[in-house]
Amino acid sequence: MVKVGIIGATGYTGVELVRLLANHPGATLEVLSSHSYVGKKYSEVYPHMLPHLDLQMVDDNPDNFKGIDQVFLALPHGVAGSLVEKLPAEIKVIDLGADFRLANPREYEEWYEQAAPNAKELEQAVYGLPELKREKINGARIVANPGCYPTATILGLAPALASGMLVGDSLIIDAKSGVSGAGRGLALGSHFSEVNENFKAYNVGRHRHTPEIEQELSSVAGRNITVTFSPHLVPMTRGILSTCYGNLASGWNETKVREYYQEFYTKEKFVQLLPQGILPQTKWVQGTNYCLMNVVVDERTGRLIIISVIDNLVKGAAGQAVQNFNLLWGYPEDTGLLMLPQIP
Fold it and tell me: Using an 8 Å Cβ cutoff, are 41 and 33 in contact?
């Protein structure tokens, strides 16, 4: 059994991690840390956990994690970098925040407006999208769990860029997220009366997931890729739907595109291409670690349209972190993650 600690256990991502790891046959939850609830039992924050887990929460002092094998960090950006360097070197780390996702520290400083993590820790980090980075994740000390928007978008676009079926270096990404993506903290923009019966774009052209998406898509394509990324907030709790547009190269049609996508993901448990004509919906992945997608070729405009959906708290965060945990510790990749969607 792998002894696990979670720093930031009371946010939405943290509680989803607790839910998944409490049922994982190879993990035992030993330490739960929370800046806001030190000394309280976990069930005082989340009473539904009382029958399953009732650990008393501690602060993030490194001494509290002695003897722990694996730490998950579910923290805002700018915090994980300084914490990791204080943890014992033998502890493996999966960071669900943004601190280790960007390989170029200057890009991090530009987009996040603060110092990047130390070079020593940054060099140890591997971007944790298992479908594309599985071999590098194996044996890593620090895994940078991808963001929710990047997960849906990169998985959707990777086959198209790997194959050369798209021409041009600029792509358009139109993405929508449920409100839980904003976290559990209070903010005017996520109040019920602001979100209910409303639909809005935000951070258009300047969302911090943009360089992460471009970094990984450029790696897949073998050339520099730029994107126009427009995120939107939808009045629902969970889910991301990403619609991506690119110009299709000559010689490709919908049949060939579908065949390539099917082959690209044929061995992937959690990425599924839907039958032709069936477009994915967020409800179909709610509570699961799956990414469902489909492709459409608009012959009139010559564009390829890719639509992908994930649960932002599972495949977009905690579920993918458990998938990475399984890779790090030699468990079958789907261990603890074979949940069916919650319908309705």
Answer: no
Q: Who's near 178: CB < 8 A, 6+ residues apart?
A: 234, 236, 237, 238, 239, 240, 282, 312
Q: What are phi and psi of 35, to 5 degrees?
A: -65, -35
Per-residue model confidence as pLDDT tens digits over 100-149: 999 999 999 999 999 999 999 999 999 999 999 999 999 999 999 999 99
Query: How many Å apart are CA 277 and CA 285, to the nearest integer?
Result: 18
Note the pTM of the prediction, 2 decimals.
Answer: 0.96
Q: Whose CA is closest to 68, among 6, 14, 118?
A: 6
Residue 297 per-residue DSSP state: E
Bridge partners, residue 230, by sequence: 174
Active-site residue list: 148
> Can you name the residues that pair with 304 across neighbouring β-strands?
246, 297
8 A C-beta contact, residue 70 and residue 2: yes
Neighbours of 130 (CB within 10 A): 21
